[in-house]
Design brief:
five-stranded mixed β-sheet, Nucleotidyltransferase, domain 5, alpha/beta, 10 helices, two-stranded antiparallel sheet
């Protein structure tokens, strides 16, 4: 029985706690929760999953091959180091890209990480991304707002690439939608649709725990310290670790889509 409430419940969990309610089963039916929150409660109590097959099928049938699975990593600097950048701007420095040219086709992989030097990492990043993404096919990301915003910033800061970036922008699709919209939900997701929660809910054996770098925040701080010459570790070793982490993110997306397809 779930005794602790997901952080998305914000102040409501404390309101319940102050009333002496610490288990889902004791929440009064008259208590003010939204539809998604009640869904979380009922799925937990009944240990049931929700699978909206018609909507999932529509989502899958709308995908255009070749399919690209894309994930960015960014870093921030308090003092701008590059032209057309600002304090604490999220600057792209690496990506992972898995590609499937046809359904059930061979899975290919491309990746990029900017060299640690005085040049602007965004330039080499966007040149390679444009080359790797080709001209057609959908580009799947998880939480489209992040990648979309970074690409729009790149188009503004590097206008010579704006047409090619526009092509990529029009092809973006969000793999988070089936989970955010609760077309697929399991009790293991605990009210969240973050990829770091969805992934182990679907694939308990899929883990980041054996990686040197296990999360995006560590990736960002590691690269930023390298750029600022304050990193004390083995640079080459940690550049490889950054690539391994980012690669696992897009491989996770491939597995998630495959899971939806097998439903």
């Amino acid at each position: 029985m779930a005794k602790f409430f997901c952080v998305v419940w914000a102040t409501k969990k404390f309101e319940l706690y102050n009333q002496g309610i610490i288990e889902f089963k004791d929440i009064p039916k008259t208590f003010s929760l939204n539809e998604n929150q009640w869904q979380q409660v009922n799925c937990e109590l009944e240990q049931k999953s929700i699978i909206d097959m018609p909507r999932i099928k529509d989502f899958l049938s709308d995908l255009i091959y070749p399919l690209y699975f894309l994930d960015f990593e960014t870093f921030q600097l308090a003092i701008p180091k590059f032209v057309n950048s600002r304090p604490y701007q999220q600057l792209v420095f690496q990506y992972s890209l898995h590609v499937q040219k046809s359904k059930n086709g061979e899975l290919l992989h491309s990746e990029f990480i900017a060299k640690i030097n005085s040049t602007d990492p965004r330039i080499s990043f966007i040149r390679k991304l444009i080359e790797d993404c080709g001209q057609e096919g959908d580009i799947l990301v998880y939480n489209i707002a992040f990648e979309k915003t970074r690409l729009q910033e790149l188009a503004n800061d590097c206008p010579e690439f704006s047409n090619s970036i526009s092509n990529i922008l029009t092809r973006l699709k969000d793999l988070m939608i089936p989970f955010r919209e609760r077309w697929f939900y399991t009790p293991e997701m605990k009210g969240s649709y973050s990829i770091k929660v969805v992934l182990p809910a679907l694939f308990p054996e899929f883990t980041y725990s054996n990686l040197e770098i296990k999360d995006g925040n560590t990736a960002s701080l590691t690269y930023a310290s390298m750029v600022q010459d304050s990193f004390s570790g083995d640079v080459n070793k940690y550049l490889k670790a950054l690539l391994e982490y980012c690669k696992l993110d897009t491989l996770a997306m491939v597995n998630i889509l495959e899971k939806l397809s097998t439903l």
